[in-house]
Amino acid sequence: NRFQYNNSLRDLFRIESDLFELSEKMMTRRTKYLQTSAETIPQVVRASAYHRDKGFREVRPFPKDLRAAHGFDNQSDQLTLSPLLMDTFLKLSVSIVESPDFNERTVGIWKEFFAPPANSENLEGEIRDRLKPFLRLAFRSAVEKEVADRYVHYAQAQVKSEESFTAGMKKVVSAILSSPLFVFRHETVADNDPYALASKLSFSLWGSCPDEGLLNAAEKGSLTNPNELAKVVDGMLEDPKIERFLDSFPSQWMQLENALAATPDPKVNRYFSIDKEYPASLAMVVEPLLLFDAIFVENRPIAELIKPSFAYRNEFLETWYHGELKPSEKDLKNAIEANDKKKRKIFDIEREIEKGERELATLIDPFRKRILAERAVEEDLSEPVDLRPIAAWEFNGNLKSSVGAIPLKKHGKAEFKDGMVEIGQDSYLRSAMLPFELRTKSLEVWFLLENLDQRGGGVMGIQGPGDFFDTIVLGERMPRHWISGSNGFSRTQDFAGSAPENLVNQMIHLIMTYEADGRIALYRNGEPYGKPYQKNLATFPQGKSSVLFGLRHTPKGGNKHLAVIIDKARLYDRALNPEEVEQAARGNQTFVSNRELLARLSPEQRASKGTLEKNLKEARNALRKAPKPIQPNKLGAESQRLFDAELRKKLRSETFERVSLSDPRYGGVITNAAMLSMTSGPKRSHPIARGAWIIEVILNDPPPPPPNDVPPLQDDGNSKNMTIREQFAKHREHPDCAGCHSKLDPLGFAMENFDLTGRWRETYRNGREVDASGSLMRKHTYQGASDFKDSLLKETDRYAKAFVGHLLRFLVSRELEPGDSLEIEKITEKAKLYDYRLKSLIREVVLSGCLTSPGH
What we know:
Elements: H1 2-13, E1 28-29, E2 44-48, H2 86-97, H3 110-114, H4 123-139, H5 145-162, H6 165-177, H7 180-183, H8 194-205, H9 212-220, H10 226-238, H11 243-253, H12 281-284, H13 286-297, H14 303-306, E3 310-313, H15 315-322, H16 329-379, E4 391-393, E5 401-403, E6 408-411, E7 414-417, E8 420-423, E9 428-431, E10 441-448, E11 457-463, E12 469-474, E13 482-486, E14 508-514, E15 519-524, E16 527-528, E17 533-534, E18 546-549, E19 564-572, H17 578-585, H18 594-600, H19 603-625, H20 635-651, E20 655-660, H21 673-678, H22 687-698, H23 724-732, H24 735-749, E21 774-776, E22 780-782, H25 785-793, H26 796-812, H27 820-832, H28 838-847, H29 849-852
Antiparallel strand pairs: 1-2, 2-20, 3-20, 4-5, 4-19, 6-9, 7-8, 8-19, 9-18, 10-14, 10-19, 11-12, 11-18, 12-13, 14-15, 15-16, 15-17, 21-22
């Protein structure tokens, strides 16, 4: 099968990784405890059911393996292949040796087999020396000279035709790997063929072809000597390659592949699939597989597979079995503490910003007032006013901001002339993202228009996330009329009493103000433009908002553009009052530029100003990036979010710790979440499926298929009045069902205290109490899962025979025959002397006549 083919190639070429993505390999051991001679598994191991190894690139798929009804994938009656399909294996072998991952770094035998020889004078001899041991390993036997000669001559021809020794050897390897002598596990008709026995032993325990040591033992006749054979088997059981047996038999015996198909309804248990890419079943299947590893390595009695004193679990499984699966008071307390920490951090940053702003104002305000006072005398103004914009642009040959570090970037055509910027058709300017939040605001802009009949273009606006915007717009609702444009007109009305624009190529001054109560007003050349109106105030988030010129909102296109010549613009983080608007309309006398300030400062003062502004910028950035506190009424949801996040982290944990099982309800191959969830439906547990699993896997007495004319039980899992046991009573009334139900029901209902995901319950969702009582084989009564496991162990001999039957069928790779029952009796009797210890039991099965005697 594919698993054996993969392992054989890994051993032949000494490759460290798998050639295929092996879904049949259900657990990956990150801790290499099988590579040591230790007799116990470490207290803490790393393992997962998530495969990182995706196999070699560009390798063709292996022909699909068929599985027998019991789940084993190595059975001879299933692994048949017509010789007509041998071409499939040729193509497969070619794709392997031609894979980019098949090279001198990954192939351990590269230098000794594929690399060109230093001396090519005796090419035939070199090829023969390389092929002889390889053919012996690949064909798992001594190779006749005629066969060897054929491959040597073929290799010579390929090396010459390919004009490359490596390419030629790859060709002959492809031929070897597609030969029936390699692909087919065949047995000679001759009795006592030691090579055939070597293959049986190797494929049974190592899932691979025999290695050189095993072939040497066959050649020496050691495998036909009972004492020598026992030593060989003991050595095989201790070899690291026994990992392949542990990769295949336990998962197939327990049918754990079905656990990965379990899909409980999220409405019943949403935590099973809380991580869409990593369902809970991936952690669950590791538990019984690690238990089997431990029972094997430590050679414990197989009774401990039913009722062990320990289990290997990660944090997720501990929570799954013993936690309430909901946020605790501690989770809520953690959410409150985390929220308070956010508040403190924001408070500290805000205090830092306030302190920096005071220090900056103390430094520059005297110079600002002096400049304004001088300007007031020159312009005969009674009171100088600094309107303190948070951003300003002069457009004197560049797109830099004269206040605030908020530069603009042009999109399309924009040219500078006469201290202004001309924005062309289908073009616009956009600022960097604003380092502050905007609610109340004022947009001020001085500009010229050549065409008053543009419809829907924006002169200046604020763009938020998506199509969220507030913009001064011309002619969108009425020709030549100004409005405050907004997404879907959600904050837009016409200014009642407004007049159409009539200034062409003359300076226009507009200020749009947005007050805290939602009042929106427009001023044109210092005078109110129509009547203000009131809407909901918009919030433009910091780091996600920007300033636009020449565009209503992004994305560009359509009638959103405005061809305009802009002289200067200001942005304020407040709504200017009418007096401030009047001052602004008078021109530059109410604004002090950064250049004017720097001209008045000494070098030391300029350096201090730069440092303060730099610190303020960093503090505002820190405030923008700081996690926002959560409203108190949402802390419950936050504690749930934190709990979910922690559970996802636990779920993906590859650290499994050995824990003592003080609670007899849990542990073992029966009462674990993997088995219990895979024998359930989406909405409820399935006692019949659980009973069928127990009778087939544990007792090795598979039930017949159910009759076709019996309607299935409704899978709602939430009957208002009946328990599942009561619902099944109707099925037992059917004469064709009564026989099976009498056998399966007691086994399955013993597990009814476990819900569809393997969590303990005392009642059903309808409030009815769970009844898990029953009797095993009509002589061992029990009240629930723990008693049931004790009852099973009272029938240890029967359980041991059943286990031996499974093990024997897997190791001999065929369906058992009536005569095998006598061999099972002998094996069980011998193994009972060793208390049915797992490794000893496997040893007895391998040494039994079923595997080693001729004719079997």
